[in-house]
Design goal:
Blueprint: H1 2-17, E1 42-47, E2 52-56, E3 62-63, H2 68-80, H3 82-88, H4 102-106, H5 118-132, H6 136-148, H7 157-165, H8 168-179, H9 187-198, E4 201-202, H10 204-215, H11 230-243, H12 249-255, E5 260-262, E6 267-272, E7 276-281, H13 292-305
Antiparallel strand pairs: 1-2, 1-7, 3-4, 5-6, 6-7
Helix pairs in contact: 1-13, 2-3, 2-5, 2-6, 2-11, 5-8, 5-9, 8-9, 11-12
Bound molecules: glutamine.
């Protein structure tokens, strides 16, 4: 019975939200991303027992982009502790674009405002590199494979090449922060990890499984193993709620109210605490870089199911 209800709910949400894709645009600043299917829209929901439901173009493969910043954050919280993460990388909204440099100079002496903007994710990776050393990329990849349950996760080599070829703003963010003594790690090595973490190929089920782990405060449904602490999960959910959709985070909290993290590949990872993990893909983006039909799909699910934290 439950099967049929959830499936019908997802099928309807996809059908209702799909027309919104027409109003958006593919990310163009990473040329390789313009090859995506603009009309694609897919969703996967995973419950805390590990059951899953999928609808729409759920078999679309896309690059994880900024959604990987959630895994990097969890890994940093587990490795370095919440105090160090919050003292070196803040927890405040920026109201600026995700790749903006302006507040590094005007507000915070080179310290990024949160781990979900590019400057913050780069600083987080640098902090981890200082702690973990050269094996950081393989450690992060392994962690992401564990969180998604997908041991075959790999990099899209063409997107990686495109990220590197066009990544000068990310280089600027990194060099500025290093110049301001935010970190001491080698910039080239830090960016290499950052570009790899953006270029991983995923499907919505991978995001939904990772989201379900956060929804269950780190506890794996099958093994009972904890992959991160409840405190790390709490921190991730807070930051997703306040900063997860770039400079649309306040609007998204009002309209949807589900802790989420978006990426310019069109993915969104969403957590309904204590209930479900959700993965969405829709490569057509709004002017802030969030999946336009994906956000609409989540808005409809949230409204009909009462999934807003603030309902
Ligand atoms: N690779 C992208 C960048 O660094 C990720 C940004 C995003 O998804 N918002 O610009």
């Amino acid at each position: 019975m439950m099967e049929i209800v959830v499936q019908a709910l997802l099928d309807k949400a996809v059908a209702d939200a799909r027309p919104y894709a027409e109003k958006g645009r593919l990310a163009t600043y990473i040329p390789e991303l313009t090859k995506a299917n603009r009309r694609a829209l897919g969703v996967c929901v995973v419950d805390l027992d590990g059951n899953h439901w999928r609808a729409g173009d759920f078999d679309t493969t896309f690059t994880i982009q900024s959604v990987s910043k959630v895994a990097t954050l969890l890994y940093a919280l587990e490795t370095c502790g919440i105090q160090q993460v919050l003292s070196r990388i803040g927890a405040e909204q920026t109201a600026d674009a995700f790749n903006s440099i302006i507040k590094l100079e005007t507000r915070n002496s080179g310290k990024p405002l949160n781990p979900f903007i590019n400057a913050g994710a780069i600083a987080l990776i640098a902090m981890l590199m200082e702690a973990v050393g050269e094996d950081l990329l393989s450690a992060l990849l392994d962690y992401l494979k564990t969180l998604t349950g997908n041991r075959t996760l790999s990099v899209d080599a063409d997107v990686l090449r495109s990220e590197r070829a066009t990544g000068d703003i990310n280089r600027a963010l990194a060099y500025y922060q290093k110049g301001m003594h935010t970190f001491t790690a080698d910039v080239t090595a830090v960016l290499d990890v950052y570009f790899h973490m953006c270029s991983l190929e995923v499907q919505v089920i991978d995001l939904a499984r990772m989201a379900a782990l956060i929804a269950s405060n780190g506890r794996h449904p099958a093994t009972g193993e904890h992959h991160f602490s409840a405190e790390s999960a709490r921190c991730a959910k807070v930051l997703m709620t306040t900063c997860g959709l770039y400079d649309s985070s306040g609007w998204f909290a009002l309209e949807v109210g589900i802790p989420s993290k978006s990426g310019v590949g069109g993915g969104i990872l969403s957590v309904v605490p204590g209930q479900f993990g959700i993965g969405v893909v829709g490569p057509s983006l709004d002017d802030k870089g969030n999946s336009i039909a994906g956000v609409e799909l989540l808005r409809r699910l949230s409204r009909t199911q009462g999934w807003s934290l603030f309902a």
